[in-house]
């Protein structure tokens, strides 16, 4: 007979999900009410305001899609890309490739800007391509590439798009609440993110925001939006604001309790303080990893503090290390994807997984595991380096 499922207690330091704070888990266990209940509608308005705070935007169309980040991505493309539209898509990792597929699935033409994995999107390459075409409808790029740990210059790319009169579609799945992100100030037109990274809520919901310019594009479409569920004109009847809501779909009530609580916690901490916390603990982790002799994939000036891509030492079985970390320390770190599969580990410092305790556990566990596998290391030096740096930042 199948019995109740009781998952093991893990420490999540991979590319996501991150550890979910007990306050968020507790919020999700509260009584379920109807998705059109006046109390729930009041909470929906608060979620919208909290997301506007986290994203630094006043966009009226700011809401959580009732599905994971991949659906948030599709929501942006299905509403903004029409057959025949030329869209510049920047790819420097796995997730730029998914943008390309979305453009093509909805009948657009993807003009690719390719950069090496682990390097930022080249603003110069984008400018050069824009100069070659006078009918670009949108520029799509990943702000924080989860597959490599690189951060691209979203502000410069959005400024360039504005200069050439096209919209921007931005993947901020890993950047939201982890590094500076200024939707209004930078002029981002459409953005999607996820809840399971630096917000430390469970996966399954995707915050999105659309600018007035993006909504104008939607309103002037010549073709019908090919997705009923993700049609923003329909969804806004439910998420639009006010007490009277049109039924669109049954929202994930308890999951939204969790998102609400995680956003309340972010507001309590302060968004700038959250950015600083991720940067601070990254430096402590970096001190420990470099003492172990591990090298980063991404140059320091483009490195994400919340997603650390480190090269596997020569001769080390990277999968075995991850397996031993899970077996002996109940610690999860991530493997490489695509071009970096088998070559790197991806170590997350996201949201509730971004603490001094997480840094020290990861350094100790890696040091012990590598030592047991025969890698020569200075005993205790890595943990001491991380602890010394962390103490300086207190």
UniProtKB/TrEMBL annotation:
PROSITE patterns: AA_TRANSFER_CLASS_5. One of its GO terms (biological process) is glycine biosynthetic process, by transamination of glyoxylate. Gene3D superfamilies: Aspartate Aminotransferase, domain 1, Type I PLP-dependent aspartate aminotransferase-like (Major domain). Its cofactor is pyridoxal 5'-phosphate. GO terms for molecular function: alanine-glyoxylate transaminase activity; L-serine-pyruvate transaminase activity. Substrate binds at residue 346. The modification N6-(pyridoxal phosphate)lysine is found at residue 197. Residues 35-336 form the Aminotransferase class V domain. Transmembrane segments: none annotated. Keywords: Aminotransferase, Pyridoxal phosphate, Pyruvate, Transferase. Pfam families: Aminotran_5. Belongs to the class-V pyridoxal-phosphate-dependent aminotransferase family. PANTHER family: ALANINE--GLYOXYLATE AMINOTRANSFERASE, AMINOTRANSFERASE CLASS V. This is Alanine-glyoxylate transaminase / serine-glyoxylate transaminase / serine-pyruvate transaminase.
